[in-house]
Design goal:
The chain is about 40% helix and about 15% strand. It has helices at about 30-35, 60-70, 90-105, 120, 135-145, 155, 160-170, 190-200; strands at about 20-25, 45-50, 80-85, 110-115, 185.
Amino acid sequence: MPKTENRAYKKSTGKHRDARCFFIVAEGEREEDYFLWFEKLSKRIRVEIIAREGKASAPKHMLTRLQKFLPENAVQPGDQIWFVLDVDHWQRKSIEELRSLCAVYESWNIAISNPCFEVWLLFHLDRPIPSNIHKAKEFKQLLGEATSGGYQVERFAPLIEKARISARNADLTPDHDYPDHVGITKVYFLADELVQFLGQNR
């Protein structure tokens, strides 16, 4: 998507800053814990979670959270803002409105899973995703059964390289940021950025 203007950056203070920050606006705790894990790999990467307010997680609420957060935190050139969301609860129209904003602001990006974030997590495993499951609860159940002891972030996050390759190979429309097909996730867009930066700065 072309980015025509960037209003999210604040003016630099002139101080040198070593770390690049990934601001994550996500729907759930599982997403937040996953991306926070990558702060451990390099001192030159920061992950800042935009806190949720109660159970409000629809796209319009995600935007409100970011707008409240930005005045108090400097977003500098090179930083990235990522909205990580699912399609299982929200109307396509509300997601499209958020996508339109991400096309305008240089630092804003979107990573959507169909139907839920657990699709992304399943791509970390050496097993195909069954084609006969379609509901979020089915993907969550499959994830819970996939490994002994269920999902644990420290067992999945180190496999991000495998996940991003598998998710990209499964994506029939890699040039689009909306996953029209069930069992597809665009979270590998964000993973590409993390892996590239971590690879250069470990």
